[in-house]
Predict the structure.
Amino acid sequence: MIHPTAIIHPTAIIHPRARLHPTVQVGAYSIIDEHVELGAGCEVLHHVHLTGHTSAGENNFFGVGCVIGAPPQDFKYKNALTKLRIGSNNVFREMVTIHCSNTEEEDTVVGSECFFMATSHVGHNAFIGDKVILANSALIAGHVTVGSQAFISGNTAIHQFVRIGELAMIQGVSAMSCDVPPYTIAFDKNLIAGLNIVGLRRAGFSVEERLELKRVYNFLFRTQLKRKDAVYQAKQLFHLPASQKMIEFVESSSRAMPADAESLHKASFKNERSSE
């Protein structure tokens, strides 16, 4: 129900069974449908549509023209009562779109303290961790998992079912159909170029952790070993929690790993020299 102390613009249309905390603010011409729940301190600007079985925690900001909780873009979806769950302290800027899941068994999930810049999109059944940043027009397809503190730059597209590891950074105008390991920098089409050193420092990773992660990265992505063999040997050599997380991510991936750009460059140079 709408609490009498909530600040609601008179042109807003809110279903009487929507559940809004008394401190919620709703701007002009916004629409909030029946099964929406908003926690304390949420602010909804004008021309926003909150729909579906959508629940959001405290202090979320919904910018102009957002459509949050719309049905999934999936031909298999048959009007099931699917859900979108949103944490707290997120910012959804202009024209952001986030869809409910396509089945009742699995929700679309957004964590807390995320920043979704203008026109970014999150598809059905995606899982977005905490403190994730999606820059303008970043596109997350269905069933994608994005680890906490990942940064996905503008005009980047992530293919369905892909996993983006925590603290990974993807440069702008990229396309990823491979799993992107945690702590790495990805760019272009399924390429990686070392560690996200700046992100690791800001996150408080020690010098020891960063140095071992660099060794793990080189071992996994810059040797000629097959993935299975590289993972097996890496488990014996590297033991810090962050290193184990990267190794486990690579081991558990059912998709191809992105190629290391430096290794590709060296291989190309070697081939050119051998053909002279």
